[in-house]
């Protein structure tokens, strides 16, 4: 297949590109590099089945006939989407529409990268796909959450009204090599802080929870969904739930760092709990994650070590 990946220079997009190339496909990667980096694709410089197009998908574009569109373009970390608020709303709306139009034009299949943020600060725990969520539509996270909720609605509309063969993956916190070291996400911040011997900044009391999925597990789940016929949203994430304080301690164990843990104010609307119910993915895709958090952090250690520069991690 000839596959279009938007957001190909990002963390997940570049890993998906690698996986699809190793499965024998041809990949066209489109990215405007607003949060991604060509460094994530540099190992593909001599790969004849890979082509990179620098393009903002908010503007209409065309890359010729494709068989599949994987729509991953969007700022994804809270620090990035706070900096790029209007752009995040635009890529979720106009950008997703442009990607859907390509699928419609060429009769291609379409998979959209949605998120656990559709559940907001959830009052149902763990989160199942039929939970409609608890999102503040005007809070600081709304530029991301509502963009993703709109993009899910748009994807379902293209399926229902125009018969586009669509899929929706709700991705839960994923980490691993190529996570931008300064994107402010908790794993990047803690790993960089620990490796530099700096204090680990826990927001609030650290009793909010997240469930962290290693990138190879996430990519496998996404590709299984891409090969399935399921049109409704499907959670792909690791259900092993950690408080942020436990996560900080895990990073200290894995890095061997002797950094202190310090506490900083909890950002507004920060979800207090998050854990995917993955019974649907298990049932319809035969998928479940294999890599636990400490193993995944160990697998990411070398990347974070190599990526260290004098640049500071971003804090909110
Ligand atoms: P990332 O920031 O590393 O990658 C996103 C990529 O999209 C970047 O390369 C960026 O330059 C590109 N991009 C953004 N706006 C664009 C635009 N208008 N035109 C073209 N390219 C644009 O983030 P990621 O973690 O790889 O996330 C990829 C996708 O997965 C995003 O849609 C994100 O919302 C979704 N997601 C990720 C996670 C996670 O934990 N990593 C969780 C839920 C959802
Ligand atoms: N967090 C933290 N310290 C940091 C960065 C993040 O305690 O240096 C917390 C943040 O408040 C949130 C959790 O870690 O509760 C996950 O944050 P992240 O930005 O990685 O992703 P989110 O799930 O909030 O989108």
Automatic annotation (TrEMBL):
Its main location: Golgi. Its cofactor is NAD(+). One of its GO terms (biological process) is UDP-D-xylose biosynthetic process. Its EC number is 4.1.1.35. GO terms for cellular component: cytoplasm. GO terms for molecular function: NAD+ binding; UDP-glucuronate decarboxylase activity. Keywords: Decarboxylase, Glycoprotein, Golgi apparatus, Lyase, Membrane, NAD, Signal-anchor, Transmembrane, Transmembrane helix. Residues 4-298 form the NAD(P)-binding domain. Signal peptide: none annotated. It is a single-pass type II membrane protein. Belongs to the NAD(P)-dependent epimerase/dehydratase family. UDP-glucuronic acid decarboxylase subfamily. This is UDP-glucuronate decarboxylase. It comes from Acidobacterium capsulatum (strain ATCC 51196 / DSM 11244 / BCRC 80197 / JCM 7670 / NBRC 15755 / NCIMB 13165 / 161).
